[in-house]
Amino acid sequence: MKKYFAASGLILMSFQLNERAVFEAYTQRIPGTEVTFDMTPIPAGTFLMGSNDPDFPDQNPVHEVKLDAFWMGVHEVTWDAFELFLDKHFEESMTEGGLGERVDGLTRPSLPYLDMTFGMGKEGKPAVGMTQYGALQYCHWLYLKTGIFYRIPTEAEWEYAARAGSKSRFFFGENDTLLSEYAWTNSNSQGSTQAVGLKKPNPWGLFDIYGNVQEWTIDGYEPDFYTRSGKENPFNPAEKLYPHVVRGGSFKTIDNEIGSAVRKISDPAWKRIDPQIPKSQWWFPEAPFIGLRIVRPLIPPSPEEIQAYYNQEPIADY
Amino acid sequence: MKTLNSRRDFIKTSALVTGGILAPSFIVPGAYAAPANELKLAVIGCGGRGTGAVFQAFETGHPIKLVAMADAFQDRMDSSYKAIFDKYGKDKVDVPVEKRFVGFDGYKKAMAEADVVILAAPPGFRPSHFEEAVNQGKQIFAEKPMATDAAGIRKVLAAAEVAKAKKLNVVVGLQRHYQNNYREVMKRVHNGDLGEIVGGQVYWNDGGVWVRERKPEQTEMEYQMRNWYYFNWLCGDHIVEQHVHNIDIANWAKNSYPVKAEGTGGRAVRTGKDHGEIFDHHVITFTYADGSVIHSECRHFPGAANRVDETFQGTKGKVFLSAGNHGVMTDWKGNPIYTHNRENQPNPYQTEHDELWATLVKGEYKFADAENAAKSTMTAIMGRYATYSGKVLTWDEALNGTVDLFPEKLAWDAMPKILPGADGYYPHAIPGKSKVV
């Protein structure tokens, strides 16, 4: 880590670094605010990704994947943090010492005309309804605030972390009878998101990985991707706006559609009732069930790669 | 001027508004004849919403050709035209450069090219645009709200009468009227399933909307036109521009309009130079002729709890409604009376166009939304008058208000009536001091 930060000192030296000497769990404070979130280390390793279930050909075949180490958010990102990013005036009012110039150039979401909490509440609850571009720009904002490269996970990283060493459908076994101890789903959510962290975590300390809200990954979705995805740090760069892979179940997902290997996809229908053209790059007014969980690679990419990652232009959506 | 509808009058209007639930649709001899070829459409106001409405018109599948466009700004015109042309191509989009009217006055010429017009400029322009469209005998889709002050409402109400006499269809984008949960619940409310509605609460509490920053090259007029949400002559304040949706539902549930309003509002957190003159919260008590009371609340407070929905209490039960397709009616013991199925519901922004254009292609006359939309807008304006002045306003006092917010002259170098002080901040209403009517 030291070596990396030295090499990229030009871009990072002005930040208050949350430098870690060791690869361990930590709490990230959003500078100048009371808002924090927890990150937990996910060790480098090899695992068997996918399934051979013939009913779900997009999970086939089981294949070996090797991943570098990263930290992952213990919880899904909540409105407490996401709303600071949404509204510069609000962020200013909540930040001791002012915002400075670092976030000046940031592209922020258009404030949603509709109530994007869908009446489900904010405090401690997962932020929902953002596009993948919005999720990515949230990470950009975090980077500008903290100097640390946060991003959304690849599909492989997500599944590796969810499995936590297991080979079964769930990290707790094959049968979904225990699911309600670990996840808010259609069967126990009363039709709403719930505060994060109320259920039991998985063995690697991740809460709500199977439920509450579905989580963005960076991958474009192709049903046959596993036949050619490669072994080391695989991911599928998206060339189209739809579909992207989303992982995990949500408060609306029925239990038999949940599992570590299950691949779900983003859908233009989530923007159906957006009455504007062009449709919002930032919001899905019919997706109260999509949220995000962030990761931080142990070895971050070069500053140029970081800039390229955050500066991906959104694809226009008519 | 007749200012308060009787229940009977309201039902006559709302029969049309609700798409013929109380009265069958009818073909009026001598109503405008549907053309043999495609209907010609013009869009006035080419922002995101006007452009979106053109898409929704095309998505009805009826034979429509876009023939003219008007917007105050060249860049909005260009981006709108490009989006529409890229999607629908030359078969549906025939708007040569000389039919793309840029500036304040282009709307008259654009309307003259068309059979049907979409009115989607900022709300302050609605009265003059609506009046012109009616005078030209056009079929109309108008976005809400219908005006930003009482002078504008009086103009719209007068034109609405002419539109009825001319049998011009008018659909207004209070899209909850075209959403199934609202239609199904209101049918039951008007049928007496909840008894008499004695009270209710309507909310639009969220974090607020976009802000457009001032640019050095802009004249004051251009800046206000760009950042229009924060100026009353253009927007009417968020109680009018946004919360009208929920207030309109209260009027629909009550089948009438309130006789008085009193309330409290102010600027608690949104107080910058970028934020013009509008308040960030309004809390109103609306009283109806029968003494029943509706509590109305709207605020733009980031970080605070959101709530956008409507609840009503009747002598036999209560109901919870939201744009998220909620429609939950229960009696006072909690037994269900009606629960709307929220899944797989049509898109109301599309339904309003589907129903309008299906009527237009048949040459029928079926929709007269303007009067209710104007009166619901007036209800919201009355609420603003109450919070701005700190006084109790009757419907008649509000509707007969003589304060006209509109500039004397519309030109890029002309001055709006509201101007910033030397410190860059705009004056805003002070309850107890400000004269609003």
Could you characterize what this model shows?
- The complex is a heterodimer of chains A (318) and B (437).
- With 318 residues, chain A is of the alpha+beta class.
- Chain A has a single domain, classed as paralog of FGE (formylglycine-generating enzyme).
- Helix content of chain A is 19%, strand content 14%.
- Chain A contains eight helices and ten strands.
- Chain A has helices spanning 2-7, 9-12, 79-86, 88-94, 132-146, 155-163, 179-182, 303-310, and strands at residues 26-29, 36-42, 45-49, 63-67, 70-73, 214-220, 244-247, 264-265, 290-291, 295-297.
- Chain A has a four-stranded antiparallel beta sheet with strand order 1-2-5-10, with no helix packed on it. In chain A, strands 8-7-6-9 form a four-stranded mixed beta sheet, with helices on one face. In chain A, strands 3-4 form a two-stranded antiparallel sheet.
- Chain A is globular, with a radius of gyration of 19 Å.
- The N and C termini of chain A lie far apart (43 Å).
- With 437 residues, chain B is α/β, with parallel strands linked by helices.
- Chain B folds into two domains: 7-177 and 349-367, Rossmann fold; 179-342 and 377-399, 2-Layer Sandwich (Dihydrodipicolinate Reductase, domain 2), CATH 3.30.360.10.
- Helices cover 34% and strands 20% of the residues of chain B.
- Chain B is built from 13 helices and 15 strands.
- Chain B has helices at 7-17, 48-59, 74-92, 106-112, 126-135, 150-165, 180-190, 220-226, 238-241, 244-254, 348-361, 370-389, 395-399, and strands at residues 39-44, 64-71, 100-102, 116-119, 139-142, 170-172, 197-206, 260-266, 281-287, 293-300, 307-314, 317-322, 326-331, 336-339, 393-394.
- In chain B, the strands form two sheets. Chain B has a nine-stranded mixed beta sheet with strand order 14-13-12-11-7-10-9-8-15.
- Chain B starts with 6 loop residues before the first helix and ends in a 38-residue tail after the last helix.
- Chain A binds chain B through residues 83, 86-87, 89-90, 93-94, 110-119, 121-123, 272-278, 288, 318, and chain B through 47-49, 51-56, 80, 83-84, 86-87, 175, 206-211, 242, 269-270, 272, 302-303, 305-309, 322-324, 347-349.
- Chain B: Residues 40-164 form the Gfo/Idh/MocA-like oxidoreductase N-terminal domain.
- Chain B: One of its GO terms (molecular function) is nucleotide binding.
- Chain B: Residues 182-319 form the GFO/IDH/MocA-like oxidoreductase domain.
